[in-house]
Specification:
- The protein has 332 residues and is of the alpha/beta class.
- Helix content is 47%, strand content 16%.
- It has 13 helices and 11 strands.
- It has a 6-stranded mixed β-sheet with strand order 8-7-9-6-5-10, with helices on both faces.
- α9 links the parallel β7 and β8.
- α4 packs across α5 and α8 crosses α9.
- It is globular, with a radius of gyration of 21 Å.
Length: 332
């Protein structure tokens, strides 16, 4: 059984409830039909019921077992507005502003997660990443001990001997443009937890750079070295090393020359990029040139599972992210 199939099977056993905030979006409804048919999770679709049912009929997809809630008319909207006001009044939010935001499907879904009425939320097929995360940051906030939210992809690389037989985790690929050393350490710790939860394998975390063990000198390298130190202090049990060049992180022969005493070099399965530009370019290079499957994006560091989709996602991507969200909920 492949990793994606294994994630879906694990999710089935958990019977979590996931809210899809973009219930009137075509790919979301196609994904909902698959999630329902495979019993990956119980679903709630947000949006106008007539529009959702009408679109499902046009697409010829069965969403009959999914619950539909319209935030504009829901009897819970007032309760969620009050919750939002209490959470944000110290930041100047008014009751009127909270009332309007609670009618927005993404905010409504986030408030459902905060209120523990659902186990997680998936959105972002038609909503900008900033808008998804704005509600998540303000309502759900970050997990204890973690001050930064990040995004990862599980990369499934065909005919590849590196990582776990071609399976690797890349982070951060979508959120933090230029994390400082502390943030980079937290991204590494969150990524290790994601790897363990989804792949059920011990993480070996490589903090990537253009230098290996002092082969070059630059403040960008200093940041990575400091991040490794912080991560080891915060998670002493974690197998983590850096700074490492990509070839030293993955290729045993090169690791033996460049970092012979490392327990990570040559066998890393979690790759932490020093900044977003490298991470985003890196995962897309591997996806396109190596024809890898990029499973995700997977949001890390929040106190409850809310996952932001790429707006270029397929319906199958959404199915996978729903399953991942269920697994994250179980591990929280």
């Amino acid at each position: 059984m492949g990793l994606v199939e294994n994630i879906r099977e694990k999710a089935k056993a958990l019977k979590k409830t996931i809210v899809l905030a973009e219930g009137t979006e075509e790919r979301t409804l196609k994904a909902a039909a698959v999630v329902q048919k495979q019993k990956i999770a119980d679903l709630i679709l947000l949006g106008n019921e007539n529009r959702i049912k009408g679109l499902a009929k046009e697409l010829n997809v069965d969403i009959s077992e999914a619950k539909i809630i319209d935030p504009e008319t829901s009897n819970k909207t007032e309760e969620y507005a009050s919750l939002l006001f209490e959470l944000r009044k110290h930041k100047g939010m008014t009751e009127e502003q909270a009332s309007e935001l609670a009618k927005d499907p993404v905010w409504y879904g986030t408030l459902m997660v905060k209120n523990k009425d659902v186990d997680g939320m998936v959105a972002g097929a038609i909503t900008a990443t900033g808008d998804v995360f704005r509600s998540a940051f303000q309502v759900v906030k970050t997990a204890p001990g973690i001050g930064v939210v990040s995004s990862a992809f599980i990369m499934l690389v065909p005919d590849c001997e590196y990582g776990a037989n071609g399976t690797l985790l890349f982070a951060d690929c979508a959120v933090n443009p230029n994390p400082d050393a502390k943030q980079l350490a937290e991204i590494a710790i969150s990524s290790a937890e994601t790897w363990k939860a989804l792949v059920n394998d011990d993480p070996r975390v490589a903090m990537l750079s253009f230098s290996t063990r002092g082969s070059a000198k630059h403040e960008m390298i200093d940041k990575v070295v400091e991040a490794v130190k912080i991560a080891k202090e915060q998670a002493p049990e974690l197998l983590i090393d850096g700074e490492l060049q990509l070839d030293a992180a993955l290729v045993p022969e090169i690791a033996n020359r460049k970092a012979p005493d490392s327990k990570v070099a040559g066998c890393a399965n979690v790759l932490i990029f020093p900044e977003l530009e490298a991470g985003n370019i890196g995962y897309k290079l591997v996806q396109r040139l190596a024809k890898a499957e990029a499973v995700g994006p997977i949001t890390q560091g929040l106190a409850a599972p809310i996952n932001d989709l790429s707006r270029g996602c397929s319906s199958d991507d959404i199915v996978n992210v729903v399953a991942i969200t269920a697994l994250q909920a179980a591990n929280m």
